[in-house]
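R.M. (postdoc): so does anyone remember the format we settled on? I'll just put the structure tokens first.
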């Protein structure tokens, strides 16, 4: 990949990023003790600051859920670890993530204190526990976001949407908002640098820092009321809505045992 920023600029951005993460760690220590509105505002401001430091330009279309709407669940396609912070910048929510993230230096503690819901990917029995945690979060007014693909893609195609983590939406009778996520480079093409596929977090950061800027587009589709529907119907609805928004074909179910678990 050809570098589009100088070494000096990348060092400057990296330094700002480190200071921003440290400030986030300090904020996360008191985060659990704050009111919900304050938590949401803090998470939104920190995420927006992260995007600015990384020169991620955010573009949003469609209508996100308004502040007064209760019992909201977001279902999005998954391209990058940047998806989380892009969504929080527009619509603060708690995310379901693989348990390995809890052990990441700095970011693991930050995620845990910010209310991330962790799931053991290797234990199918853990789905029942995480679904109960999601239901509890929805009941107290938190918004929860999931990535039904269960892993990241390069942004040029969708993966099959698994339904397991959408059961709490049915139980809590939430509004389900499909959100399509797409990244563009300076030439207007799908950004390879943003995709978190077959790279470490450090390598991904290096790819992003090399770019002058990257645009992330969030497309909020019309929500569906989950009342009277089952989780598979919700999965197919979200899959179709996101495929349509991104002008991509609806994926066929891949063979093998589905995980239904998010990467980040």
């Amino acid at each position: 990949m050809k570098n589009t920023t100088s070494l000096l600029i990348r060092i400057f951005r990296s330094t700002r990023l480190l200071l921003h993460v440290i400030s986030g760690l300090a904020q996360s220590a008191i985060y659990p003790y704050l009111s919900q509105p304050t938590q949401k505002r803090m998470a939104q401001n920190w995420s927006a600051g992260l995007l600015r430091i990384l020169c991620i330009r955010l573009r949003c279309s469609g209508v996100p859920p308004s502040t007064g709407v209760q019992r909201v669940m977001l279902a999005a396609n998954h391209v990058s670890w940047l998806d989380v912070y892009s969504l929080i910048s527009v619509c603060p929510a708690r995310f379901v993530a693989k348990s390995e993230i809890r052990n990441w230096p700095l970011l693991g503690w930050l995620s845990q204190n910010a209310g991330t819901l962790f799931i053991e990917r290797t234990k199918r029995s853990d789905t029942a526990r995480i679904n109960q945690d999601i239901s509890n979060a929805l009941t107290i007014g938190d918004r929860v976001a999931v990535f039904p693909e269960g892993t990241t893609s390069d942004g040029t195609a969708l993966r099959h949407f698994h339904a397991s983590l959408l059961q709490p939406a049915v139980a809590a009778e939430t509004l389900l908002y499909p959100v399509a996520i797409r990244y563009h480079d300076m030439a207007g093409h799908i950004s390879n640098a943003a995709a978190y596929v077959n790279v470490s977090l450090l390598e991904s950061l290096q790819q992003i820092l090399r770019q002058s800027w990257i645009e992330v587009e969030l497309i909020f589709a019309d929500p569906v009321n989950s009342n009277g529907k089952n989780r598979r119907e919700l999965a197919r609805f979200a899959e179709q809505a996101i495929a349509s928004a991104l002008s991509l074909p609806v994926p066929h179910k891949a063979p093998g045992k589905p995980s239904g678990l998010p990467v980040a």
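R.M.: ...and that's the designed sequence above, right after the tokens. Also worth knowing: Residues 7-30 form the longest helix (24 residues). Residues 7-246 form a domain with the Glycerol-3-phosphate (1)-acyltransferase fold (CATH 3.40.1130).
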